[in-house]
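Re: that chain you flagged

S.,

Sorry for the slow reply, it's been a week of failed gels. I finally had a moment to sit down with the sequence you sent. For the record, here it is as I used it:
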Amino acid sequence: MCKVVFIGLLLLYSTALSHWLIGTFGWFGAEKDPLSGIFLIILGQPWVRWVDALPEALWPLGGAVAPAINAIILYFLCRYLGAKPA
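Prediction finished late last night. Pasting the structure tokens below so you have them in one place:
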């Protein structure tokens, strides 16, 4: 079950990241949307709150990387729980 949740999180993260890139830079003829990164904020909770500590120029990068922290935590948690003897 843990593997399914981890893969689901990775799929959501990749979808949100591509939506943010397409909306921010107007790729594929899409209009630029200032709220295109909202899904990254939701997936990056609670780490996205620490983005304010970064210099303002790094805020977009910090917001984009925050969900990866959750994915890394979930990966190691799955490995730890899977390695326990039954």
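What I noticed first: The two ends are 16 Å apart (CA to CA).

Talk soon,
D.
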